[in-house]
């Protein structure tokens, strides 16, 4: 059964997929991981960030975080 899609406004696309209506398989798939310290993802015109000591644990003991192979 077809889907009814209303008004759409796409402001920005920086990679990825846009899907309208019904779909069976969406491909390609991807998974990413990022490590960010305290106050590193702040955005704006005037930012004051006061952090003491900030440390990130980048040791990842998981073999697979998000399986995407063969995942329909």
The number of strands is 0
Rg for CA atoms: 19 Å
Q: Note the total helix count.
A: 0
Helix content: under 10%
Describe this structure in words.
With 72 residues, this protein is mostly loops. 0% of the residues lie in helices and 0% in strands. The chain is flat and about 55 Å long. The mean pLDDT is 75.
How would you describe this structure in keywords?
flat; single chain; 72 residues; little secondary structure
Blueprint (SSEs and pairs):
Blueprint: no helix or strand
Condensed summary:
It has no helix or strand. By secondary structure, the protein is low in regular secondary structure.
């Amino acid at each position: 059964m077809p889907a009814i899609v209303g008004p759409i406004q796409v402001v920005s696309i920086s990679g990825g997929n846009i899907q309208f209506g019904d779909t069976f398989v969406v491909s390609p798939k991807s998974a990413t991981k990022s490590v960010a310290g305290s106050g590193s993802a702040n955005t704006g015109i005037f930012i004051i960030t006061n952090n003491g000591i900030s440390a990130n644990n980048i040791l990842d003991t998981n073999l697979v975080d998000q399986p995407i192979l063969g995942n329909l």
